[in-house]
Amino acid sequence: MEPPVDGSCDVAVVGGGLIGLATAMALSAQGRRVAVLEAEERLAVHQSGHNSGVIHSGIYYKPGSLKAELCAAGSRALYRFCAEEGIAHERCGKLIVATSPEELPRLDELQRRGEANGLNGVRRLKSEEIREIEPHAAGIAALHVPETGIADYPAVARAYARRIEAAGGRVRTGVRLTAVRRDGSGLAVETSRGALACRLLVNCAGLQSDRVARLCGATPDVRIFPFRGEYYDLAPARRSLVRGLIYPVPDPRFPFLGVHLTRRVDGSIEAGPNAVLALKREGYRWRDVSLRDAAAIAAWPGFWHLAARFLGIGVYEVRRSLSKGLFVRDLQRLVPEIAPDDVHRAGSGVRAQALDAKGGLIDDFRIARSERAIHVLNAPSPGATASMPIGERIAAMAAEVL
Predict the structure, then answer these.
(1) How confident is the model at residue 254 (pLDDT cuts 50, 70, 90)?
(2) Residue 243: how many CB atoms within 10 A of its CB?
(3) Which letter, b or e, does each residue of 384-402 get, where b requires 16 or more Cβ atoms within 10 Å of its Cβ?
(4) Domains of the chain by start residue, with CATH
(5) Are 244 and 263 within 8 A, CB to CB?
(6) Residues 290-325: pLDDT tens digits?
(7) In this model, does residue 4 exceed pLDDT 80?
(8) Is the pLDDT of residue 328 over 80?
(9) Dihedral through CA 250, CA 255, CA 259, CA 261, nearest 10?
(10) CA–CA gap between residue 226 and residue 162 (Å, rounded)
């Protein structure tokens, strides 16, 4: 068992996912004394270890947004980092496939965004050209995005932790935050394993980030809603149906991309995810229900606005969650040869999505300040890809108050 938490540091980083670790790594590079406090017994247990493993290019994001800026920088940094650390990764490219005429204007907009965001090599494909990239895919047009790749994100998290510790920082697991109070010019941080004094707290707690913000005395104007994404795996004998990544054209009315096919660094092919509201912050299964979390969902006025606006889509996502046939039917829009027997249920992930009081799903990264604290209140995809520049941005914010 690890020793109790005690002593002092310049910055306590709450959360041992990719963004918390990247932030601590950037702070350590400034010469700050850093302690990372992770509630779970391992690093990268939640979003960081349950995503699709994609290094995003930035083609989806509105030019000028924080997502667009940090994704592009993060992609370049992550490829370099993986190469330096010997972490499995590949720049395998992605196809975004239009399967109906009404999707063509959206494909045009994605191409415009890709060009505005400085992506290299984005190419529009005609129907007959799709099979040159993905022989088993089908559509009426597509975009080929060669800068998209894949990586082993749990290995990235472990490498971040090694660099923190090499710089003199501490990375502690099994340490749950219980209270924060002002103590002179700094903070007294109470945890399940003891107390720690710090000059600044950085909240990278993901699914619990709004609650950690309130523990710090902040009043965030958003609440975290957990959306579960469920995956299927393609049978090993059918992995040849997918060479790289095959995505649908996203619906701009909804912040999720829709089910897609992703090759992972171990050679497996992952299908999914869907997006179902979970009734527990860490609700990876239908039977995972927390009365506290469910009550918090119902109490937030934004939930009812959201439910009214997206009722039809929400019902369909639930149906697809419960029906393998519906899931496979959506996959067949991209790769018609996939049959129900070709896929089997795999794992799931839970996305921490910030929702405002009017029912608005926060699309961009959201970083807020309170007294002696910085809070990452929304860091959805491409948060993993952008983790290093997000960490550097937070470290720069911290330098202003330290």
Answers:
(1) confident
(2) 18
(3) bbbbbbbbbbbbebbeeee
(4) 8-48+154-221+365-399 (3.50.50.60)
(5) yes
(6) 999 999 999 999 999 999 999 999 999 999 999 999
(7) no
(8) yes
(9) 80
(10) 30
